[in-house]
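Predict structure. Chain length: 122.
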Amino acid sequence: MLAVVKTPRTSVRIEGDIPESILSLLKAEYGKKLVVKQSPDDARVDVFETDWYKTRKKSMTPGKYMRIYRDNLGLTQEELGHKLGGLSRHYVSDLEAGTRAISKGIAKSLSEIFKQPVGRFL
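Prediction complete.
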């Protein structure tokens, strides 16, 4: 359910299951200016079952996973290289780009740093 209210100085957007008491309050305050839209239940889709996800999953490489997890932790390539035992930024860049293979030892270290299965990086 989506409730949208627009007045010259007020714009309110509430999404999700909105309690009737809040809807009543909004109706009393905004009257005809209140717009309530019902979302169909089938609008929710399991992303893991979509063609988009399956296509993206197939295109993922160990280096791409490495970059995503590094970005999620807010680490620079230099910082990650330091955590991996003093690897250079260029070396980390090569691992992410796929121009250098990720060794089993580095994959194990990545697994510990990112708390992900080691197989994700091999």
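Summary: The CA atoms of residues 14 and 50 lie 27 Å apart.
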